[in-house]
Amino acid sequence: MSNTSQRSGDATTVQSVDRAVTVLEILAREGEAGVTEIAAELGVHKSTAFRLVAALENRDLVAQDTQRGKYRLGVGILRLAGATTVRLDLVQESRPVCHDLAKEVGETVNVTVLAGPEVLYLDQVAGPSALQLSNWVGQRLPLHATSNGKVQLAFLGEDDRRELLTAPLERFTEDTITDLDELERELQRVRERGYATAVGEMEFGLTAIAAPVRNVEGTVRGSISVSGPSFRLPDSRVPEVARAVCAAADEVSRRLGWMGRMSA
Question: Which residues contact 121 (CB under 8 A, 6 or more apart)?
């Protein structure tokens, strides 16, 4: 394909995306609209408007009233909005707790959620120590090599874990767990004690301790972790820091409506 043809194809794709978003905006404003109305507002032929609406309907982003023949926003919009709301609520409710935790343990605190086969870092609060870690916010890291990832994996159903974990698991350091059976044993320990650790598994010399954050139904929807250089977080200090991390995760969970208690 020539560069000119490729640029033309890219422009057409962008235009289609822009029109699809406009369809959603029209329905949000009007409540419902027919293909003729949508085509008129977009300035396109009815067949083009129909293809756009059909594509959105396939994703449940719009739904048709079979009696009236008009379209309205679908349940797919609610799913997307709900996912965004959960993440915003988690960051908002965890921020003051994470500040207190960072001050208490003197290390960096991160807030994460599960994002497919990875863990997504939503927020970070730096501790008062002179040597600070990189800013992980917005980054996605592997589940099997991080304390946050292990926590999220541990409290998933077995079938969901199998979907996310496929051999071979990537090795990042000599301490990375790459055997699925060994990882499953590690996840069982996480469930028993209520927190996960990763010592030099993602980066040499980095120790992290994470605990799960639950929603009102008790489902794990995120995690909070403390991480720092291993010389500041030796094995002897892990139980103390783990208790603080679990207490912070409990508090955020309660702020999200959970009434239970984790063991640590």
Answer: 110, 111, 112, 136, 137, 138, 139, 140, 141, 148
Check if the beta carbon of residue 63 is closer than 8 Å to that of residue 49: no
Q: How far is CA 202 from the centre of its chain?
A: 19
Three-class DSSP category at 138: coil
Name residue, tokens 């002179």. 130
Euclidean distance between CA atoms 221 and 141, whole angstroms: 17
- pTM of the full structure: 0.67
Which tokens sit at 179? 């055997």
Residue closest to 149 by CA, chosen among 192, 203, 187: 187
**Average pLDDT for consecutive 10-residue bins of the chain (264 residues)?**
50 79 88 91 91 89 80 75 63 89 94 90 81 74 95 92 87 95 95 96 95 90 94 95 96 85 47
Q: Can you tell me whether residue 62 is helix, strand or coil?
A: strand
Residues 209 and 43: their CA atoms lie apart, in Å, by: 56
Q: What is the pLDDT of residue 195?
A: 97
Burial class (CB in 10 A: 0-12, 13-18, 19+), 57: middle
Alpha-carbon distances, residue 209 vs 65, 109, 135, 154 (angstroms):
51, 10, 17, 14
Collapsed DSSP state (helix, strand, coil) of residue 65: coil
User: At 84, which amino acid appears?
Assistant: T
User: What is the DSSP secondary structure assignment for residue 33, as one 8-state letter?
Assistant: B
Contacts 24+ apart (CB under 8 A), 217-222: 217/258, 218/258, 218/260, 220/151, 220/152, 220/155, 220/156, 221/86, 221/90, 221/113, 221/256, 222/90, 222/94, 222/111, 222/112, 222/113, 222/114, 222/122, 222/152
Give the helix/strand (H/E) hosting 225. strand 220-229
